[in-house]
Write a structure and sequence with these properties.
globular; Arc Repressor Mutant, subunit A; about 45% helix; alpha+beta; two-stranded antiparallel sheet; 5 strands; 3-stranded mixed beta sheet; binds zinc ion; about 130 residues
Length: about 130
């Protein structure tokens, strides 16, 4: 649960409150590892342990985490997905299944970095 501990540590360091909701949402994000869950995935998962969680609490919490740089949010097929890998990489999106795989091809990333003149990016490539 390395990701869980790292995120909890970040919240503490930034003087944020560790509410049961926040901790459970972090636990769920960590459980999904690098699978880029949607907000609905998280909602279903967290509601198993914290049934009274509302969608707006989940949404506001996830937005807060993004503001703090703990995660990134992006949209695929009209659905908000969560990126937990803060390192530069490429997301390969299978449009049919909606599954997203991380790719860290150093050569390819080098080419993109030179093209866009930036080190900080996530590229989403959709496979049709
Ligand atoms: Zn990714």
């Amino acid at each position: 649960m390395e990701k869980y501990e790292r995120m909890v540590e970040e919240l503490k360091n930034k003087g944020q409150r560790l509410t049961p909701q926040r901790l459970e949402i972090i636990r769920s994000i960590a459980r999904y590892e690098n699978k880029h869950p949607s907000l609905n995935d998280l909602m279903e998962d967290v509601r198993r342990t914290l049934p009274p969680l509302s969608f707006s609490t989940l949404y506001n919490t996830v937005m807060k985490f993004e503001e703090m740089g703990m995660i990134h949010l992006f949209s695929i097929n009209g659905e908000t997905r969560i990126e937990t890998k803060i390192k530069t990489h490429i997301n390969i999106v299978d449009r049919r299944s909606g599954r997203i795989k991380d790719m860290e091809d150093a050569k390819l990333l080098g080419l993109i970095k030179r093209k866009i003149k930036s080190d900080d990016f996530v590229v989403n490539i959709i496979v049709y």
